[in-house]
Amino acid sequence: MSPGLKIVFFEAFLLFHFLHKCSCSKLNDRTFADKRVDAIFPEISPTGSPQPLLPLLAPSPLAPFTNITVPKLSGLCTLNFSAAENLTSMTAIDCWAVFAPYVAHVICCPQYEATLTILIGQSSKTTNLLALNGSLAKHCLSDMDQILASQGAGNNLNQICTIRPSNLTEASCPVKDVFTFENTVESSKLLAACKKVDLVKECCEQVCQNAILEAATKIALKASDDLLSLNEQHIVMDHSARIDDCRNIVLRWLASKLDTSQAKKVLRGLSSCKVNQFCPLVFPNMKHVAKSCANSISNQTACCSAMESYVSHLQKQSFVTNLQAVDCAMSMGVKLRRMNISRNVYSLCHITLKDFSVQVANIVSGCLLPSLPSDATFDNFSGVGFLCDLNDNIPAPWPLTNQFQTSLCNKTVKIPALPAATSDQSGKPIFFPLTTSHFPPVICIRFLVGQLSIGIVDDDLKLVS
């Protein structure tokens, strides 16, 4: 089997009497985990690879899945949660309490938002409304949280995903009833463009996205008469926000015209375009790296130690997709270049794309999520898991200029979007222990290993057949 990209599907699980029965051993070195995330970097000496960070809460987070509690509902929400039971169950797994903050922007929040959009869209078939009023929105969002939490999801999803009751209303969009909507937009054209979205091409060709924008703009113009007397700058700003609000109305209408599974595929596909456009990591002060890696780089060891220490802090933030990792590497590289570091310190210090994501285990290293939409999985034996490109040893790309250029539609960047393991190793489990000082339980991670090959050609990432 040729070396390269190992595609790994990993499933995390906790057992009730885990500490007595699991053959995995604890990580003895807690020093790294005990250090504060916001500590001053020069005080941290990276003596090796950072300890893996995969926080867990006690007791066993699988309990909600194996013993689902009864949610306390308001009885005032008109959304048909029962009709979307499979959808809400999937959302609960995608937003599993322990992992939710670390897969929020890639898996949990896109799924949560899609679920709400579909529920409102489907309800419009009987209400003729593509939005909830303020009071109803508050009750429905609360009920939704209760349902998800009762199945093991985090109880703070609204905070993690920044979702408020107002997000379930029409907000500033002047159109919310189906009749007015369909008499304002070219509904057949919209449905034709978005009924079947090519998940690979849509982000760059934007066939469905352009149709949605056109429809949102048309219904937003319904309020144009009210804006004529306002300052022109205010009109532009207000109109832009109104189009965003109307876009939600368009998505709900689409969700009402598609079956639940197809609607989810379309909505998640569109959200992945947005997700992969930016690096979600926050880059703290780089002065220590700049000082150690000045252009002369008289001390390569000091420079790489500073880089490893800095990157180890980035690894505590969240999982990122393979395309996001490219953007993160480019973004950090641009910042370093602007601090007069022109030499490729990624190559010098062997920094790879997987170094920009959460580390799963020392001997396996970083986990890059697929750029195409994916869900977590759950079964009573293995627990919760998700697809992960673990041994993706692609060198982090170093920018050639001081200007950042997005890689999403860069045709020279070709990273496998959705991993598919080969069969020869697909059934072989490998176990790795994880622990942190903040979350007492120790867990084992099971990996089902497959392999694809990826090559580096002229500093560009190209998939090797």
From TrEMBL:
It holds the Pfam family At1g61900. Residues 278-350 form the At1g61900-like C-terminal domain. Keywords: Signal. The keyword Signal applies. Residues 1-24 form the signal peptide. InterPro entries: At1g61900-like, At1g61900_C, SPARK. The keyword Signal applies. GO terms for cellular component: plasma membrane. It comes from the Eukaryota. Transmembrane segments: none annotated. Residues 74-221 form the SPARK domain. This is Uncharacterized GPI-anchored protein At1g61900-like isoform X1. It comes from Rhodamnia argentea.
